[in-house]
Every structure is written in structure tokens, then in C-alpha cells.
Amino acid sequence: MFTILVADSISKEGLQPLLEMTNAKVIQKKVTDPESYLDEIDALLVRSATKVDEALLDKMPRLKIIARAGVGVDNIDVEAATRKGIVVINAPDGNTISTAEHTFAMMASMMRNIPQAHQTVKNLEWQRNDFIGTELFGKTLGILGMGRIGTELAKRAKAFGMNIHVFDPFLTKDRAGKLGVELCTLDEVLEHADIITVHTPLTAETKGLINEHALSKTKKGVFFLNCARGGIIDEQALAKYIGNGHVAGAALDVFETEPPGENPLLKFDHVIATPHLGASTKEAQLNVASQVSKEVRLFLEEKPVSNSINLPAISKDIYEKIRPFHQMSKQMGSILSQCIKEGIQELSITYSGTVTELETSYLTKATLAGFFKNRIAVNVNEVNALLTAKERGITVGEKISADPFGYANCLTVTAKAEEKSFVIRGTYIDNYGPRIVFLNGFNIDFLPEGNLLYIQHRDRPGVIGRVGKILGDHSINIATMQVGRKEIGGEAIMVLSFDKPLDDHSLALLNQLDDIVSLNRIHL
Ligand SMILES: NC(=O)c1ccc[n+]([C@@H]2O[C@H](COP(=O)([O-])OP(=O)(O)OC[C@H]3O[C@@H](n4cnc5c(N)ncnc54)[C@H](O)[C@@H]3O)[C@@H](O)[C@H]2O)c1
Ligand SMILES: O=C(O)[C@H](O)COP(=O)(O)O
């Protein structure tokens, strides 16, 4: 049974995919509420209000996925989540239109003094001369960050006859041309725009993108908008430039601290503000809630998710093709880890045959996840597998080979430790399943599943019988048994599978038998 915590106000209708799950319980509480049972939570849904920092993650040992019902993930410590193997997803486009419309509404309101004029009418005043506005028509709108929202805003502004100058280092000239906007440098936008609006994410690079230096380059009488994230425009610098009359006004939906409290910007008549309402429409809230709910459900059903911030995105169709190899890769990693007990320096995977047409990097991560699974305390999965390997000084390699050893597809994983290396090879046979066909130098053929025992022994008459006798004497049923050897009378291996795990006592007795070289219990 999964427990899902919905920690912010999220559309109930949009949560339906989760509420309909028979194997999940949905709790709607704040993370600070003692009844939110943080240590039992498998999935966490938030908006921007809940700060998901490392301290919170430490209290949630079962957490597997964080879903942001919205765009910005700056309230989530994605790095800490990644380290802990927690998938972070968002709803990247569910609130784009609402936020673009809100920005446009703020711009129009600011240019025509609507909030200020509205208040005077409510106060039974009639001051027509105090509220002379400015037309949008013919003005230059500077857009910093031409992503989803910036683009939708540009379309609307063009319809009002505005000239659009944009700065976005990731926007190509060709795309700017198609969108009918002028691609500029930051300085060009600052120098020419009548109104400047920011639509970038808040990152180390964009924090203070509009600072005193940038403000000093703008036209006198410029207007500013921030409906993206508090901090992209430095609030202190903006207050200074509004105070000295250089900036004519600002419209703010977001603040460096929310709620902003006694923020000096709010004291200016020329500053209008809303309480982070960009995404607050029925439509946007339904969109983002149902987008993340569907994704969380898919994730809990072990299906691929599309909007992950820290997991390689794989479409459903591609995942269906990769699924058999995905399972097998994890099992091969796990077998390796249980056979080679010491620390390893290198893990390399060679793909050949039909599997090379698939997203092999995903399989490499799955192999690593399988390898680390029982070795280290943190949950390792495809999200943090490479990072975990790097942190432990393990070099990870991936190769493609033209030789599939006679199989339609083939995955060969080699782990190198200081003194030795260990090789495992598997293939997936349609309508038959995964098979391990090579283990530590021996050809073999077994299903990587359940409780296995891997024995290295000398190829002598009676060894197999003596092993069988001990197991029989201890009521251990051998479900399957495969043997392999390099030459008659030389080294050999057995792989046995049991219906239940092999107990310590039987293992010790087997270990005492003549001609047994080594024994490894493998649990998959
Ligand atoms: N007010 C709200 O309620 C609300 C709602 C939704 C989104 N947002 C915020 O709006 C912002 C934009 O969202 P989006 O969905 O359009 O994101 P997006 O990822 O589609 O677009 C962001 C754009 O910023 C550009 N960019 C990145 N760094 C830049 C830099 N240094 N200078 C200039 N451009 C840069 C990127 O290339 C990208 O095109 C985000 O901060 C998001 O959190 C706010
Ligand atoms: O990044 C976003 O999606 C917006 O800032 C919306 O935030 P909210 O979900 O808290 O309204």
C-alpha cells in the first residue's frame, strides 16, 4: 500500500487518478502537521508553498517521488532528492496560458493604473485626471526568457501592436524569426524596451539578472514586470530606481520572500502586486494536478514518467521495448554485486544485437542500480546511479559490439576489482525470457530470478550428488539446476534455484564438501 501526501492546495478533481488507486492512500496535510506521517510517505505532491529541503527529505525515508503541481522547482532541493534516488517531476505546461494571461493582465493594469483607479472609485472619489495611462500599441516589450510563458506572452503582445525584443541565450535566430520577435542581447533589450518582463527560471545565473547595473542601462520611464520568480529582479535595486523616478512602475506577482511582509516596494503607488496568482485559475490548477497525478500513478505502477527533472525521459512506447532488458540489467547488476564481494573500480557494459537500437544509457543506469542495491544504505535507482558510482570512484563504461555471441541480443557486464574481474552475460529471448548465458568464464543458461546458489567447484564425479544430498537432508527443494565447465575435470560451476532462501547451516555444510571452491547465495 502506498501513502501519498498532498501538502499544498491542489485541485481535488485533478487528484482523481490517485484517489482511484486501490493500493494507495491519499493524505491532505501540511508537512508540518504531526498527522502527515512523514516516515510513511511514498509520494509527495506540492506547489510552491512547501519547501522541500534536505532536512524534510531526511524525515521521509520511504519517499520515492516528489511531484510539483506547477513549473518552478526552486522550492525543492533537487540535488538532495537526486542523491537520495528520489524522482522529481513537475507539470511544465499546465499553467503556461494562465501565467501568460496574468502577466498580460498585470501589464495592461499597470499601464492604465487600473488597481489605483479602482480603489479611488471604491472610496467614492472620481479622479479622472490622476490616472492618465500609456498605450501598449507601438511600445517595445522586452522579454527576458523566451520559453513557454515568454512565447505565449509575445503572441498576445503582438496582437496589441507591440514590438517584441527578446533576450534568451538558448533561443536561435531561426526560431525568433518564426515567432516574429527580435532576438537581442541583454543590453539591447535594456536600452530599448519601454516595458521589461522576466520569464526565466530562478537559477544562480538569473538571480539578480535585473540588478542596479542592469537598471542603470534602461530608458528613463521604463516599466517592469515579474510574474516568474522573486529575486530575478533585485528588489532593493528596483526600489531604489522607482524611488529616484527612473523606473515608472512595476507589476509584481512574485517576491524574494513570500508573503513579502513589510516590503518597501509595496509602499510605492506605482507598484501593483498580486499574491503569486499566475497559475491560479481553475483551468491551470486542474491541468497541473491531473498532469502530476497521472504521472505519480504511472510511477507507482512502475511505468515510465515523462516530466521528470532528474530521471532520463523515456516515452511509454520506448519503455515497452526496453522493459525486458531493464529488468534483466538490474538482475545482472545484482548478481555481480552478490558474486564479487569486494569494492570495484570499474563497471563496463557491452551491448550487442537488437538491444543496441534502444536507449542503452537507461540500461546502464539500471545495471548500476542493481549493483548498488544491497551494497549501500541509500536507495539507488536510475536517478542517482551514475552519481553514486562517481561518488564511489567507480568508472562506468558503455560499449557497442558487433558480436552478439550467436544471440539476437546480448548484454555483457564486466566488473573490475583490484585483483580480479567478473563477467556476466545475459540475453533476452522473446516468449522465453531473460537468460544468463555466461558467468565468470563459464557458459551456462539460467533464469535470473528468485533464490539462487552459485557454486564454483572442481569437475569430479559425485560433487553434484553430494550437494543434492545435503540439500535433500535439509528438506531444501531444488527447483532448477544448471552446470557449466571449461574442460573435463577442470573448474566448473553450478547454479541452483530454490523455492525458499538457503539457510546458513546448509550453506556451511556445503562449504565443507571436498571439491567446492566457493559458494555464493544470490537473492533476486
Ligand atoms: N507566477 C506564477 O504563478 C508562475 C506560473 C508558472 C511559471 N512561473 C515561472 O515562470 C518562469 C518561466 O516559466 P516557463 O514555463 O516559461 O519556463 P521555460 O523553461 O519554458 O522558459 C524559461 C526560459 O528562460 C530561458 N533562460 C534560462 N536562463 C536564462 C538567462 N540567464 N537569461 C535569459 N533567458 C534564460 C530559457 O532558455 C527558457 O527559454 C519560471 O520561473 C516559472 O517558475 C510562474
Ligand atoms: O512555478 C509555477 O508553476 C508557479 O509559480 C505556480 O506556483 P503555485 O503552484 O504555487 O501557484
UniProtKB/TrEMBL annotation:
For this protein, the Enzyme Commission number is 1.1.1.95
Enzyme type, top EC level: oxidoreductase
User: Per its record, what are the GO molecular function terms?
Assistant: phosphoglycerate dehydrogenase activity
Reaction(s) catalysed by this chain's protein: (R)-2-hydroxyglutarate + NAD(+) = 2-oxoglutarate + NADH + H(+); (2R)-3-phosphoglycerate + NAD(+) = 3-phosphooxypyruvate + NADH + H(+)
* UniProt xrefs under PROSITE patterns: ACT, D_2_HYDROXYACID_DH_1, D_2_HYDROXYACID_DH_2, D_2_HYDROXYACID_DH_3
Report the Pfam families cross-referenced here: 2-Hacid_dh, 2-Hacid_dh_C, ACT, PGDH_inter
For the ACT domain, which residue ranges apply?
452-524
Q: Look up the domain of life of the source.
A: Bacteria
Specify the pathway.
Amino-acid biosynthesis; L-serine biosynthesis; L-serine from 3-phospho-D-glycerate: step 1/3
Keywords annotated in UniProt: Amino-acid biosynthesis, NAD, Oxidoreductase, Serine biosynthesis
InterPro entries, A to Z: ACT-like_dom_sf (IPR045865), ACT_dom (IPR002912), ASB_dom_sf (IPR029009), D-2-hydroxyacid_DH (IPR050857), D-isomer_2_OHA_DH_cat_dom (IPR006139), D-isomer_DH_CS (IPR029753), D-isomer_DH_CS1 (IPR029752), D-isomer_DH_NAD-bd (IPR006140)
Q: Which family does it belong to?
A: Belongs to the D-isomer specific 2-hydroxyacid dehydrogenase family.
Give the protein's biological function: Catalyzes the reversible oxidation of 3-phospho-D-glycerate to 3-phosphonooxypyruvate, the first step of the phosphorylated L-serine biosynthesis pathway. Also catalyzes the reversible oxidation of 2-hydroxyglutarate to 2-oxoglutarate.
Instruction: Report what the protein is called.
Output: D-3-phosphoglycerate dehydrogenase
From which source organism is this entry? Cytobacillus mangrovibacter
UniProt lists the gene as serA
